[in-house]
Specification:
This protein is mainly alpha-helical and 183 residues long. It has two domains: 71 residues, Orthogonal Bundle (Rna Polymerase Sigma Factor, Chain: A); 83 residues, Winged helix-like DNA-binding domain superfamily/Winged helix DNA-binding domain (Arc Repressor Mutant, subunit A). Helices cover 67% and strands 0% of the residues. α1 runs antiparallel to α2 and α3 crosses α7. The longest helix has 22 residues.
Length: 183
């Protein structure tokens, strides 16, 4: 199969953000990589259903999100490390302040309801507009705005942050915490 070079570039350009989103959903890098790989395979297998002139990233994110939720439904009956004994052995001590802040951020992010976390990652870290995020999530723009607002407020509360300047210099992290004006 020969893929149009512009489509190829659009697909490849979305991979880093797809991977970041997948990691935020899964919390596991290996599982996230598998999710991205499956997303790309599904996208290529169905590339003829992509509407030229529309947002390739949004299309790919929708495929990834739908596949994640399908897999989640299948796996939620699985019991991995039920007593948490294995998870307790997987500790690594942070070697710098930024790493500790990131771990605190990830822990706080994990405490958010899934729909809020998903909206926040799509809008704040992945750079999608509220409209694009609403399309990806299959809900109203107002719902996304509400989820993002509640997620940011809860993160700030969990992390005792009054302003985005209270948290590290990472641009993506600041974008998640800051109230970007996306309409």
């Amino acid at each position: 199969m020969t893929l149009d070079p512009s489509l190829r570039e659009a697909v490849l350009g979305a991979v880093p953000k797809l991977r970041a989103f997948a990691i935020s959903l899964c919390g596991n890098v290996d599982r996230a990589d598998d999710l991205v790989q499956e997303t790309l395979l599904r996208a290529l297998a169905n590339i003829n259903s992509f509407q030229p002139g529309t947002n390739m990233s949004a299309w790919l994110f929708t495929i990834l999100r739908n596949h994640f939720h399908s897999e989640y439904r299948k796996r939620r009956r699985e019991v991995e490390d039920g007593d948490g004994s294995y998870a307790e052995t997987l500790k690594s001590q942070p070697d710098q302040t930024a790493r500790m802040e990131f771990q605190e951020f990830r822990a706080a992010l994990a405490k958010l309801p899934p729909d809020q976390r998903e909206a926040l990652i799509l809008v704040g870290a992945s750079g999608f507009s509220y409209e694009e995020t609403a399309d990806i999530c299959g809900c109203a723009v107002g719902t996304i705005k509400s989820r993002v607002n509640r997620a940011r407020a809860r993160l700030a509360e969990l992390m005792s942050i009054e302003t985005a300047d209270d948290f590290g210099p990472d641009r993506a992290t600041r974008a998640v915490l800051a109230g970007n004006d996306r309409s």
